[in-house]
Amino acid sequence: MSSSKATDFGTALCIITGASKGLGRSLAKEIAGLLKSGSVLLLVARSGDKLQDLQDDLVSSEAGGAGLQIRCVVADLSHKEGVESVVRQAKDISCSDIDHLLLFNNAASLGDVSRFARSFTDMDDVDSYWSFNVSSALCLTAGILGAFPHRIGLRRCIVNISSVCAVKPYASWVLYCSGKAARDMMFRVLAEEEKDLRVLNYAPGPLDTDMLLQARTTTADTKLKDFIAAMYSDGHVLTCEESVSKLIKVLQEDNYPSGAHVDFFDV
Ligand code: NDP
């Protein structure tokens, strides 16, 4: 547990992957207002136009206030060049003024949920899913930690956006469930190894995003598909803003054991 309880996030370098839409975009909008002057917000995704829209939005709404630097990094995290370019651009930021490093490993994909585990005979399909959803999160985190090593006065917090699927199997979601389980364990190991870090696996609940649209329209398992469709039509899906508020509260209270899996519905 950290010694200082923060209600804002200080002068931070805050990196958000998958910031172009969905949860990542809402997170960027919310956290921008909690960063002190001199902070840098690094927004990562493949869609440069959407990142630019977000940057314009943040600037015009003055969400970040004066003194917040916003940088967009257009990168495909399914390739090592994409991960390396994010690390490179983070390294360009002078770390002497930064008292908080915050990395949100948010970007992910659902994968092909239109078929069952027994049909995944092609290793290339599986490797490509794991490359983006698992390997990139580890390599990006390691690269950023290497660029901003432990020093007195620097808080370092790594958030993995997880899912209930990390702990519960869902038929026809073999890639997504196994990827989320692997990510959780990776970050639990990291918390075990690096005691000065704060590491959080946050499961955001069902969100009204493009990922959920894909889930409720293409899931092969009929029971699961109907369940998600009903959850959506009955209005039991959360807005990204609701989930982001909970995440921010968890981070501000700073009471979770490092490496914990914290679900929206548990706090
Ligand atoms: P979206 O599909 O809406 O957004 C995904 C984000 O990831 C986008 O910004 C996308 O940007 C980015 N992304 C996708 N592929 C790549 C890539 N190869 N390289 C870099 N960035 C990429 O997802 P959500 O907002 O719904 O999900 C956010 C997180 O929340 C994920 O980790 C997801 O697993 C988790 N989650 C979501 C739930 C839900 O119900 N939606 C439930 C539980 C967990 P671009 O296309 O521009 O690259």
What would your notes on this structure say?
- The chain is an alpha/beta fold.
- It has a single domain, classed as NAD(P)-binding Rossmann-like Domain (Rossmann fold).
- Helices cover 44% and strands 15% of the residues.
- A seven-stranded parallel beta sheet has the order 3-2-1-4-5-6-7, sandwiched between helices.
- Helix 1 packs across helix 8, helix 3 packs parallel to helix 4 (123-147) and helix 6 (210-218) packs across helix 7 (222-233).
- The longest helix has 25 residues, at 123-147.
- It binds NADPH dihydro-nicotinamide-adenine-dinucleotide phosphate.
- NADPH dihydro-nicotinamide-adenine-dinucleotide phosphate is lined by residues 18-24, 45-47, 50, 76-78, 106-109, 132, 161, 163, 204, 206-207, 209-212.
Question: Nutshell version of this structure?
Answer:
This protein has 267 residues and is α/β, with parallel strands linked by helices.
Number of domains: 1
User: In CATH terms, what is the fold-level topology?
Assistant: Rossmann fold
> Under the CATH scheme, which architecture would be assigned?
3-Layer(aba) Sandwich
Helix/strand structural class: alpha/beta
Distance between the termini: 17 Å
The CATH C-level name is Alpha Beta
Q: Which whole number gives the mean pLDDT?
A: 95
CATH homologous superfamily assignment: NAD(P)-binding Rossmann-like Domain
* Strand arrangement across the biggest beta sheet: 3-2-1-4-5-6-7
Helix content: 40-55%
Q: Counting H and I runs of at least 4 residues, what is the number of helices?
A: 8
Instruction: Tell me how many strands there are.
Output: 7
Q: Please tell me what the overall shape is.
A: globular
What is the C-alpha radius of gyration, as a whole number of Å? Answer: 18 Å
Uncertain residue ranges: 1-6
Largest sheet: 7 strands, parallel
